[in-house]
Amino acid sequence: MGVISEFKAFAVKGNVVDMAVGIIIGAAFGKIVSSFVGDVIMPPLGLLIGGVDFSDLVITLKAAVGDAPAVVVAYGKFIQSIIDFVIVAFAIFMGVKAINRLKREEAVAPSAPPLPSKEEELLGEIRDLLKVQNNRP
């Protein structure tokens, strides 16, 4: 089997196609999550905490000389990234929790009992007839 035919067999397998679809949907969902956090969650949170931004915090190892930029450790950006991650993770957690709650409520909803089969109906009729016959003197 040639390399081309092996690759073709690999590429059209259901798992590969499903994975590709999942990655594409995941990328689109990532945009939704980013917009939700950046446009819905962060503005009120920023207002609440007074617009604190750690990304300007740095330790200068070597000052800028001429055209050479300064050498800095930008630990503030790292702290800001951690805070952003925690906010995103918490927002996702709350969304998943709400979805799971809706699924549980959906699963708890009672369904109508199934109708008896023809065999069960006939057996019930036979049982009732036997009771009537046995109760005669």
From TrEMBL:
Principal subcellular localization: membrane
Gene3D superfamilies: Large-conductance mechanosensitive channel, MscL, domain 1 (1.10.1200.120)
Keyword Membrane: yes
Subcellular localization(s) per the UniProt record: Cell inner membrane; Cell membrane
Molecular-function GO term, any one: mechanosensitive monoatomic ion channel activity
Top-level taxon: Bacteria
Keywords tagged on the record: Cell inner membrane, Cell membrane, Ion channel, Ion transport, Membrane, Transmembrane, Transmembrane helix, Transport
Coiled coil: none
Residue ranges crossing the lipid bilayer per the database entry: 20-38, 78-96
GO CC annotation, single: plasma membrane
UniProt cross-references to PROSITE patterns, sorted A to Z: MSCL
Record's bilayer topology term: Multi-pass membrane protein
Quaternary structure (record): Homopentamer.
Similarity remark: Belongs to the MscL family.
Function (record text): Channel that opens in response to stretch forces in the membrane lipid bilayer. May participate in the regulation of osmotic pressure changes within the cell.
Protein name, as recorded: Large-conductance mechanosensitive channel
Organism: Pseudomonas taetrolens
Gene label: mscL
